[in-house]
Design goal:
Rossmann fold, about 375 residues, Jelly Rolls, single chain, alpha/beta, 8 helices, six-stranded parallel beta sheet
Length: about 375
Protein backbone atom coordinates (compact mmCIF):
# COMPACT_ATOMS: atom_id res chain seq x y z
CA UNK A 1 0.00 0.00 0.00
CA UNK A 2 1.31 3.42 -0.95
CA UNK A 3 2.07 5.66 2.04
CA UNK A 4 -0.08 8.73 2.45
CA UNK A 5 1.69 12.06 2.07
CA UNK A 6 1.84 14.03 5.31
CA UNK A 7 1.32 17.78 4.91
CA UNK A 8 3.34 19.66 7.50
CA UNK A 9 2.93 23.36 8.25
CA UNK A 10 6.03 25.01 9.72
CA UNK A 11 5.66 28.52 11.14
CA UNK A 12 8.71 30.71 11.64
CA UNK A 13 10.28 28.94 8.67
CA UNK A 14 13.11 31.48 8.36
CA UNK A 15 14.19 30.89 11.94
CA UNK A 16 17.13 28.93 13.30
CA UNK A 17 15.25 25.88 14.53
CA UNK A 18 13.00 25.77 11.47
CA UNK A 19 15.92 25.84 9.02
CA UNK A 20 17.53 22.84 10.66
CA UNK A 21 14.24 20.99 11.03
CA UNK A 22 13.12 21.69 7.46
CA UNK A 23 16.26 20.33 5.83
CA UNK A 24 15.76 17.08 7.75
CA UNK A 25 12.08 16.75 6.93
CA UNK A 26 12.77 17.34 3.23
CA UNK A 27 14.68 14.06 3.12
CA UNK A 28 11.38 12.22 3.63
CA UNK A 29 9.60 12.14 0.27
CA UNK A 30 6.31 11.39 2.06
CA UNK A 31 6.29 14.88 3.55
CA UNK A 32 4.90 17.97 1.87
CA UNK A 33 6.20 21.04 3.67
CA UNK A 34 4.24 24.28 3.86
CA UNK A 35 6.56 27.02 5.07
CA UNK A 36 5.13 30.13 6.73
CA UNK A 37 7.03 33.18 7.91
CA UNK A 38 6.52 36.94 8.27
CA UNK A 39 6.25 37.40 4.52
CA UNK A 40 3.46 34.80 4.19
CA UNK A 41 0.15 36.56 3.61
CA UNK A 42 -3.01 35.56 5.47
CA UNK A 43 -4.61 34.00 2.43
CA UNK A 44 -1.74 31.55 2.00
CA UNK A 45 -1.52 30.86 5.73
CA UNK A 46 -5.26 30.04 5.73
CA UNK A 47 -4.74 27.64 2.83
CA UNK A 48 -1.91 25.92 4.68
CA UNK A 49 -3.96 25.70 7.88
CA UNK A 50 -7.00 24.17 6.17
CA UNK A 51 -5.08 21.32 4.53
CA UNK A 52 -2.19 20.43 6.88
CA UNK A 53 -1.92 17.20 8.87
CA UNK A 54 0.68 18.44 11.33
CA UNK A 55 2.00 21.77 12.58
CA UNK A 56 5.43 22.71 13.86
CA UNK A 57 4.66 26.06 15.50
CA UNK A 58 8.13 27.59 15.72
CA UNK A 59 7.31 31.27 15.12
CA UNK A 60 7.79 33.66 17.99
CA UNK A 61 9.29 36.90 19.26
CA UNK A 62 12.02 36.86 21.88
CA UNK A 63 13.90 40.14 21.46
CA UNK A 64 11.49 42.89 20.46
CA UNK A 65 12.01 46.64 20.61
CA UNK A 66 8.82 47.06 22.64
CA UNK A 67 7.42 44.80 25.35
CA UNK A 68 4.02 44.67 23.67
CA UNK A 69 5.57 42.76 20.78
CA UNK A 70 6.02 39.75 23.05
CA UNK A 71 2.26 39.43 23.32
CA UNK A 72 1.54 40.24 19.69
CA UNK A 73 4.19 37.86 18.31
CA UNK A 74 3.79 34.94 20.70
CA UNK A 75 0.12 35.02 21.68
CA UNK A 76 -1.49 37.07 18.92
CA UNK A 77 0.05 35.08 16.10
CA UNK A 78 -0.81 31.81 17.86
CA UNK A 79 -4.46 32.86 18.20
CA UNK A 80 -4.58 33.82 14.51
CA UNK A 81 -3.10 30.47 13.51
CA UNK A 82 -5.56 28.56 15.70
CA UNK A 83 -8.46 30.51 14.24
CA UNK A 84 -7.42 29.42 10.75
CA UNK A 85 -6.95 25.83 11.93
CA UNK A 86 -10.57 25.64 13.16
CA UNK A 87 -11.63 24.94 9.58
CA UNK A 88 -9.30 21.93 9.42
CA UNK A 89 -11.35 18.79 10.08
CA UNK A 90 -8.37 16.51 10.69
CA UNK A 91 -7.00 15.28 14.01
CA UNK A 92 -3.87 17.38 13.91
CA UNK A 93 -0.41 16.65 15.30
CA UNK A 94 0.86 19.84 16.93
CA UNK A 95 4.44 20.54 18.11
CA UNK A 96 5.20 23.87 19.75
CA UNK A 97 8.60 25.45 20.50
CA UNK A 98 8.17 27.15 23.86
CA UNK A 99 10.84 28.23 26.33
CA UNK A 100 12.01 27.45 29.85
CA UNK A 101 11.18 31.12 30.40
CA UNK A 102 7.51 30.05 30.51
CA UNK A 103 8.17 29.08 34.12
CA UNK A 104 9.30 32.63 34.97
CA UNK A 105 7.37 35.82 35.65
CA UNK A 106 8.75 38.07 32.93
CA UNK A 107 7.11 39.51 29.77
CA UNK A 108 8.62 36.90 27.45
CA UNK A 109 7.88 34.02 29.79
CA UNK A 110 4.28 35.13 30.36
CA UNK A 111 3.68 35.39 26.61
CA UNK A 112 5.05 31.89 25.96
CA UNK A 113 2.97 30.45 28.82
CA UNK A 114 -0.17 32.13 27.47
CA UNK A 115 0.53 30.68 24.01
CA UNK A 116 0.96 27.21 25.58
CA UNK A 117 -2.40 27.54 27.33
CA UNK A 118 -4.18 28.53 24.11
CA UNK A 119 -2.67 25.52 22.34
CA UNK A 120 -3.68 23.16 25.15
CA UNK A 121 -7.28 24.38 24.95
CA UNK A 122 -7.33 24.07 21.18
CA UNK A 123 -5.87 20.56 21.22
CA UNK A 124 -8.49 19.43 23.76
CA UNK A 125 -11.34 20.85 21.68
CA UNK A 126 -10.07 19.35 18.42
CA UNK A 127 -8.93 16.10 20.06
CA UNK A 128 -5.52 16.76 18.54
CA UNK A 129 -2.15 15.65 19.86
CA UNK A 130 0.08 18.39 21.23
CA UNK A 131 3.70 18.32 22.38
CA UNK A 132 5.29 21.41 23.92
CA UNK A 133 9.07 21.77 24.09
CA UNK A 134 10.22 24.22 26.76
CA UNK A 135 13.64 24.83 25.33
CA UNK A 136 16.71 26.33 27.01
CA UNK A 137 19.29 28.14 24.88
CA UNK A 138 19.60 26.25 21.59
CA UNK A 139 22.95 26.28 19.76
CA UNK A 140 24.22 24.96 16.46
CA UNK A 141 24.81 25.86 12.82
CA UNK A 142 22.82 28.68 11.18
CA UNK A 143 21.92 30.46 14.42
CA UNK A 144 21.92 34.25 14.11
CA UNK A 145 24.80 35.94 15.99
CA UNK A 146 24.47 39.17 18.00
CA UNK A 147 20.82 38.43 18.63
CA UNK A 148 19.83 36.09 21.47
CA UNK A 149 22.38 33.26 21.37
CA UNK A 150 25.59 33.63 23.36
CA UNK A 151 27.09 30.64 21.51
CA UNK A 152 26.35 32.09 18.07
CA UNK A 153 27.73 35.49 19.08
CA UNK A 154 30.92 34.06 20.59
CA UNK A 155 31.52 31.70 17.64
CA UNK A 156 30.90 34.41 15.05
CA UNK A 157 33.24 36.87 16.78
CA UNK A 158 36.09 34.45 17.51
CA UNK A 159 35.96 33.01 13.97
CA UNK A 160 36.61 36.54 12.70
CA UNK A 161 39.34 37.39 15.19
CA UNK A 162 37.06 39.81 17.05
CA UNK A 163 37.08 40.15 20.85
CA UNK A 164 34.19 38.77 22.88
CA UNK A 165 32.79 40.41 25.99
CA UNK A 166 31.97 38.33 29.05
CA UNK A 167 30.02 40.33 31.62
CA UNK A 168 29.90 37.59 34.27
CA UNK A 169 32.25 34.63 33.83
CA UNK A 170 30.50 32.65 36.55
CA UNK A 171 27.01 33.04 35.13
CA UNK A 172 25.61 29.66 34.13
CA UNK A 173 23.75 29.01 30.90
CA UNK A 174 21.89 25.84 29.94
CA UNK A 175 22.41 24.75 26.34
CA UNK A 176 20.82 22.17 24.07
CA UNK A 177 22.09 21.25 20.60
CA UNK A 178 19.98 21.91 17.52
CA UNK A 179 20.31 18.37 16.15
CA UNK A 180 19.06 16.96 19.47
CA UNK A 181 16.11 19.34 19.35
CA UNK A 182 15.29 18.40 15.75
CA UNK A 183 15.61 14.69 16.55
CA UNK A 184 13.15 14.96 19.44
CA UNK A 185 10.68 17.07 17.50
CA UNK A 186 10.62 14.63 14.60
CA UNK A 187 10.32 11.74 17.05
CA UNK A 188 7.30 13.46 18.59
CA UNK A 189 5.76 13.83 15.14
CA UNK A 190 6.11 10.11 14.55
CA UNK A 191 5.12 8.91 18.06
CA UNK A 192 1.48 8.09 18.74
CA UNK A 193 1.47 8.50 22.51
CA UNK A 194 3.77 11.50 22.91
CA UNK A 195 3.69 13.37 26.23
CA UNK A 196 2.32 16.90 26.50
CA UNK A 197 5.76 18.23 27.40
CA UNK A 198 8.63 16.95 25.31
CA UNK A 199 12.25 17.01 26.38
CA UNK A 200 15.18 17.79 24.10
CA UNK A 201 18.22 16.21 25.71
CA UNK A 202 20.92 16.27 26.79
CA UNK A 203 20.98 19.73 28.34
CA UNK A 204 24.48 21.08 28.98
CA UNK A 205 24.98 23.56 31.85
CA UNK A 206 28.17 25.60 31.52
CA UNK A 207 29.66 28.78 32.93
CA UNK A 208 29.88 31.62 30.41
CA UNK A 209 33.60 32.08 31.08
CA UNK A 210 34.26 28.40 30.40
CA UNK A 211 32.20 28.58 27.21
CA UNK A 212 34.19 31.57 25.98
CA UNK A 213 37.53 29.86 26.67
CA UNK A 214 36.47 26.69 24.88
CA UNK A 215 35.56 28.64 21.75
CA UNK A 216 38.81 30.61 21.90
CA UNK A 217 40.70 27.30 22.13
CA UNK A 218 39.06 26.15 18.89
CA UNK A 219 40.48 29.20 17.15
CA UNK A 220 43.96 28.58 18.60
CA UNK A 221 43.87 25.01 17.22
CA UNK A 222 44.92 26.32 13.84
CA UNK A 223 48.24 27.35 15.41
CA UNK A 224 48.86 24.87 18.22
CA UNK A 225 47.28 21.97 16.21
CA UNK A 226 45.67 20.68 19.40
CA UNK A 227 42.38 18.99 18.55
CA UNK A 228 39.42 19.54 20.90
CA UNK A 229 38.41 16.65 23.15
CA UNK A 230 35.64 15.50 20.87
CA UNK A 231 35.05 12.39 22.96
CA UNK A 232 33.04 14.79 25.13
CA UNK A 233 29.67 15.14 23.39
CA UNK A 234 29.28 18.83 24.28
CA UNK A 235 32.76 19.75 23.05
CA UNK A 236 32.14 17.82 19.82
CA UNK A 237 28.89 19.69 19.16
CA UNK A 238 30.33 23.07 20.12
CA UNK A 239 33.36 22.56 17.86
CA UNK A 240 31.10 21.66 14.93
CA UNK A 241 29.10 24.80 15.67
CA UNK A 242 32.20 27.00 15.76
CA UNK A 243 33.48 25.68 12.43
CA UNK A 244 30.15 26.56 10.81
CA UNK A 245 30.80 30.24 11.56
CA UNK A 246 34.08 30.38 9.64
CA UNK A 247 33.85 32.54 6.54
CA UNK A 248 33.93 30.58 3.29
CA UNK A 249 37.28 32.20 2.37
CA UNK A 250 38.82 31.13 5.69
CA UNK A 251 38.38 27.37 5.63
CA UNK A 252 42.06 26.60 4.99
CA UNK A 253 45.07 27.49 7.11
CA UNK A 254 48.84 27.02 6.78
CA UNK A 255 50.94 24.38 8.54
CA UNK A 256 54.60 24.65 9.52
CA UNK A 257 56.74 22.49 7.23
CA UNK A 258 60.39 21.68 7.95
CA UNK A 259 62.29 21.12 4.68
CA UNK A 260 65.79 19.96 3.84
CA UNK A 261 67.54 18.08 1.02
CA UNK A 262 65.95 14.80 2.20
CA UNK A 263 62.35 16.00 1.94
CA UNK A 264 60.03 17.55 4.50
CA UNK A 265 58.19 16.94 7.76
CA UNK A 266 54.87 18.59 8.71
CA UNK A 267 52.86 18.23 11.90
CA UNK A 268 49.13 18.05 11.12
CA UNK A 269 47.23 17.34 14.37
CA UNK A 270 47.96 17.11 18.08
CA UNK A 271 45.76 15.74 20.86
CA UNK A 272 45.88 15.75 24.65
CA UNK A 273 45.12 12.05 24.92
CA UNK A 274 45.93 10.35 21.61
CA UNK A 275 49.25 11.68 20.38
CA UNK A 276 49.88 13.46 17.10
CA UNK A 277 49.68 12.99 13.33
CA UNK A 278 52.33 14.19 10.90
CA UNK A 279 53.14 13.95 7.19
CA UNK A 280 56.64 12.91 6.11
CA UNK A 281 57.90 13.44 2.53
CA UNK A 282 61.12 11.62 1.53
CA UNK A 283 63.07 12.08 -1.69
CA UNK A 284 64.04 9.00 -3.80
CA UNK A 285 66.93 7.01 -2.36
CA UNK A 286 66.81 8.80 1.01
CA UNK A 287 66.67 6.99 4.36
CA UNK A 288 65.08 8.62 7.40
CA UNK A 289 64.93 7.42 10.97
CA UNK A 290 67.63 5.11 12.35
CA UNK A 291 66.42 5.71 15.88
CA UNK A 292 64.43 3.94 18.59
CA UNK A 293 62.16 4.80 21.52
CA UNK A 294 61.69 3.46 25.05
CA UNK A 295 57.96 4.22 25.25
CA UNK A 296 56.90 6.13 22.17
CA UNK A 297 55.21 4.02 19.49
CA UNK A 298 54.16 4.97 15.99
CA UNK A 299 52.12 3.88 12.99
CA UNK A 300 53.28 4.55 9.42
CA UNK A 301 50.95 4.69 6.43
CA UNK A 302 52.52 5.19 3.01
CA UNK A 303 50.01 7.00 0.81
CA UNK A 304 52.25 7.68 -2.20
CA UNK A 305 55.38 6.01 -3.52
CA UNK A 306 57.14 2.84 -2.33
CA UNK A 307 59.06 2.38 0.92
CA UNK A 308 61.06 -0.23 2.74
CA UNK A 309 60.61 -0.02 6.53
CA UNK A 310 63.34 -1.88 8.46
CA UNK A 311 63.55 -2.96 12.10
CA UNK A 312 66.17 -4.32 14.50
CA UNK A 313 65.34 -5.42 18.04
CA UNK A 314 67.60 -3.56 20.49
CA UNK A 315 68.04 -6.64 22.73
CA UNK A 316 67.86 -9.72 20.53
CA UNK A 317 69.19 -8.20 17.30
CA UNK A 318 66.36 -9.78 15.30
CA UNK A 319 65.53 -7.89 12.11
CA UNK A 320 62.51 -7.44 9.88
CA UNK A 321 61.69 -5.45 6.75
CA UNK A 322 58.44 -4.50 5.05
CA UNK A 323 57.92 -3.10 1.55
CA UNK A 324 54.79 -0.93 1.45
CA UNK A 325 53.28 1.20 -1.29
CA UNK A 326 50.63 3.82 -1.84
CA UNK A 327 49.15 1.43 -4.40
CA UNK A 328 47.96 -0.77 -1.53
CA UNK A 329 47.39 1.03 1.77
CA UNK A 330 48.82 -0.92 4.70
CA UNK A 331 49.63 0.38 8.18
CA UNK A 332 52.92 -0.57 9.82
CA UNK A 333 53.29 -0.56 13.62
CA UNK A 334 56.56 0.76 15.07
CA UNK A 335 56.94 -0.83 18.54
CA UNK A 336 59.09 0.52 21.34
CA UNK A 337 62.51 -1.13 21.66
CA UNK A 338 63.11 -1.49 17.90
CA UNK A 339 65.46 0.80 16.04
CA UNK A 340 63.86 1.52 12.68
CA UNK A 341 64.18 3.47 9.47
CA UNK A 342 62.22 4.15 6.32
CA UNK A 343 63.77 4.32 2.85
CA UNK A 344 62.25 5.63 -0.35
CA UNK A 345 62.97 2.83 -2.83
CA UNK A 346 60.78 4.29 -5.59
CA UNK A 347 61.41 6.87 -8.30
CA UNK A 348 59.10 9.58 -6.93
CA UNK A 349 58.65 11.38 -3.63
CA UNK A 350 57.47 9.10 -0.83
CA UNK A 351 54.59 10.46 1.26
CA UNK A 352 53.91 8.84 4.65
CA UNK A 353 51.28 9.68 7.25
CA UNK A 354 52.74 9.07 10.70
CA UNK A 355 50.94 8.75 14.04
CA UNK A 356 52.78 8.81 17.37
CA UNK A 357 51.11 7.98 20.67
CA UNK A 358 52.48 11.13 22.32
CA UNK A 359 53.06 14.68 21.19
CA UNK A 360 56.69 15.65 20.64
CA UNK A 361 58.34 17.13 23.71
CA UNK A 362 61.77 18.64 22.88
CA UNK A 363 62.76 18.36 26.57
CA UNK A 364 61.96 14.65 26.62
CA UNK A 365 61.98 13.40 23.02
CA UNK A 366 62.44 9.66 23.86
CA UNK A 367 64.35 9.31 20.58
CA UNK A 368 67.84 7.72 20.41
CA UNK A 369 70.06 7.43 17.33
CA UNK A 370 70.95 3.84 16.35
CA UNK A 371 71.47 2.49 12.84
CA UNK A 372 69.29 -0.44 11.87
Amino acid sequence: MEKKEVKILITGSNGFIAKNLTIRLKRNKDHELMLANRSTDEKELKRFARSCDAVFHLAGVNRPEHEREFWDGNVGYTLKLLDFLKENQKQLRFIFASSIQAKLDNPYGRSKLAAEQELIRFAAQKKSKLTIFRLPNVFGKWCRPNYNSVVATFCYSVARGMPIRVHDENACVELVYIDDVADEMIRSLETEGADLYGQAAPVYPIRVGELAELIRSFHRQREDLLLPQTGDSFVKKLYSTWLSYLEKDNLKYPLVTHRDERGSFTEFLRTDAAGQVSVNVIKPGIVKGNHWHHTKVEKFLVVRGTACIRFRHMQTGETAAYVVSGDRLEAVDIPAGYTHNIENIGDDDLVTVMWANETFDPDKPDTYYEEV
